[in-house]
Specification:
Layout lengths: L2 H5 L5 H25 L4 H31 L7 H27 L7 H24 L5 H32 L3 H35 L1
Helix pairs in contact: 2-3, 2-4, 2-5, 3-4, 4-7, 5-6, 5-7, 6-7
């Protein structure tokens, strides 16, 4: 970056967009976890699925605004590629949350397992930490705390992977209905994929912190 660029103000709205998107991710993950816990409540289930769809559309708008601002901004507070990668991977998290919610309706799943609820709660815990890490990006000097949250996301993702593998193994041992087995396996895989995306977000944030620390 040349001398003139260093003197120019850096667009701070990117952090606002990151924070807004992280809030939407956490709300969607919280709705999904609650939906799975109270799955027998059909009206609540349908309302939850609809709400997650609304949150996903709102997140898409934030993503478009972020990319649009990126095209208009000369001097950015973070590397341009990091900005694009971060908002894109955050959007992928919410896309997978919506995919999970839609699968419940599309496959007409009537019964869920404890493993489904456990995976959804682990996903919600990842999203809590994404929200915290994103909020720390705006202010300098928060590197150690941000990295701690990223490490916690990594640990939660590993735990989700173990829960998914154990859950699928249990399905193949105990579930007699092949259709139910396939449906539940899909739900497990979508939830675990969402935690994988959370880990990708954490890795991007970790790289930003180390690059700018």
């Amino acid at each position: 970056m040349n001398f003139l660029s260093r003197l120019m103000p850096r667009e701070g709205r990117f952090f606002t967009f990151f924070e807004r998107h992280a809030d939407l991710i956490l709300e969607a993950a919280t709705v999904l976890a609650q939906l799975l816990r109270d799955y027998g409540n059909r009206a609540g289930r349908e309302a939850g699925i609809a709400r997650i769809g609304e949150l996903e559309h709102a997140a898409d708008r934030v993503t478009r605004e972020t990319v649009g601002l990126l095209h208009q901004t000369f001097v950015t507070p973070l590397d341009r590629d990091d900005i694009h990668r971060l908002i894109s991977h955050m959007d992928d998290v919410l896309d997978l949350i919506q995919d999970t919610a839609e699968a419940l309706s599309l496959y007409d799943i009537e019964l869920l397992t404890n493993e489904s609820c456990e995976l959804a709660e682990l996903l919600r815990e990842c999203c809590v930490r994404i929200q915290g890490a994103v909020r720390l990006l705006r202010r300098a000097g928060n590197g150690p705390e941000t990295l701690r949250l990223c490490n916690e996301i990594d640990a939660l993702e590993s735990q989700a992977d173990r829960v998914m593998r154990a859950g699928i193994s249990k399905l193949f041992r105990e579930e007699q209905d092949v259709r139910q087995l396939i449906k539940l396996e899909t739900v497990y895989q979508l939830l675990e994929a969402a935690t994988d995306q959370c880990e990708d977000v954490a890795n991007i944030i970790e790289g930003v912190v180390l690059e700018n620390g």
